[in-house]
Automatic annotation (TrEMBL):
It comes from the Bacteria. It comes from Salinicola acroporae. The lineage of its organism: Bacteria, Pseudomonadati, Pseudomonadota, Gammaproteobacteria, Oceanospirillales. It holds the Pfam family SBP_bac_5. Belongs to the bacterial solute-binding protein 5 family. Coiled coil: none annotated. Keywords: Signal, Transport. CDD domains: PBP2_NikA_DppA_OppA_like_2 (cd08498). SUPFAM superfamilies: Periplasmic binding protein-like II (SSF53850). This is Nickel/dipeptide/oligopeptide ABC transporter substrate-binding protein. Residues 58-424 form the Solute-binding protein family domain. Transmembrane segments: none annotated.
Amino acid sequence: MPLSMGAALADDSPITLRVAYDTDPVSLDIHEQLSIGMLQLSHLAFDPLVRWNRELDFEPRLATRWEQLDDTTMRFHLRHGVTFHSGNAFTAKDVVWTLHRLQRSPDFRAIFAPISRIEAVDAFTVDLETRQPYPLLLNLATYIFPMDSQFYSGTSAEGLDKSDIVKNGNSFASRHLSGTGPFEVVKRQPGARIEFERFPDYWDTGSPGNVERLVMTPIAENATRVAALLSGDVDFISPVPFNAVQRLRHAKGVKLVTMPGTRITMLQLNEQRVAAFRDRRVRLAFAYAVNQTAIAQRLLKGFATPAAQMSPQGYASHVPTLTPRHDLAKARELMREAGYGDGFSVTLMAPNNRYVNDAQTAQVALAIAAMLAKINVTVEFETLPKNQYWAEYDNRAADMMMMGWYSDTGDSANFFEYLTFCPDAETGAGQYNASEYCNPRIDALVARANLTMQPAARAGLLQQAELEIHDEAPFIPLYWQNLAWAAADRVDITPVLNVMNMPYLGDVVVHPR
């Protein structure tokens, strides 16, 4: 019988890690949604070809080595002796099958659009060919979690294709899982908990991880999540809300780890819903009216960095001279020039259980409404739980949508590809561009950067694109979130954390009580 939360472990009980995240993975289908929650699940139940280490270098996983055959072809040599949870053997066929599936996923297809050919050279060798020289192929490989092609092929008992990807729906893959990762899913209650057990045939025998049983429980409410850790009901929580950082830093028996974040939080202005947003002067007026520094320092107590662009410091397109441009007089002048001196009304929608500072989401929205009121704009805002918000977001249900995004590839181009590219349902470009903004010139700059193998030249192109977006203001950058995790001090979390915010819990060590 599963242990209840907070139950003491007997000496002969399995080593258990009780994890509380702020949300539940929306599905067991890792290609259904591109989000942190789904990537965290991927690293529990699957393995990528390569993964980022703490220094953001590439670490071999299911690919043991790789070589660049020519300007457009990279060869991956795969690990032998790997078994899926189903008992099926891992081979190159599974990599090819997985990549083809990624290319038809609404959320992932844009990332994998550069790949033109996928070929299994033999049972443990795969060639990936791009249409043109592409500098980020290894970055993409960190998001290739080979799936069990035999397990996911054929038809289900309901007569449905097991390989179908159904957004926010019911499919075989959303309810069944067979990966190569350290943990198998043994029980799932959507929205309540997922129970995992250590996969006895896991290939990585060198992993220091000693967790035999893992229980993941979503606790959306920040204070409740923190209280669960302090009371001993859970062993590890993520994220730590900013207003609990100091408390946990000094709490007895608790280990706190913080890192600067790279996720940009922004306010998207929908040009299709609001005619005024098609006027660049109005968009700029909104940008000048919003005070990012006040939001980050006062509302978020400094646990965020005010932003004036998408890319954080250290990313290729980051432009150091771009700083928050709050100027109320300029904002009012632009509104008058555009013929909107008397203002207008807009709606704003934001999630209330997704981001690190969710306890303050309503306050941030309220602060933005107060700032825009100073240019005679009336804001009606609504906050929703994440699972409801995503459906509304996909429907572009409000004039302004709050969005948080971190680069899936660890590169600036990803911000543009998803958040600013002209929306294209066929390719997946602009999948999360709720501004409905389209500027082919900026898209072309990023496309050129993605063909440029020289880092300095590539950065120059991306910085030019960042400057043009800043000048066009299709959205308002707000802040980059800081990251924080906390655990009972017997859980050694530091070695498994990274700025990508995907803890490698298969390697975590839990010490005796």
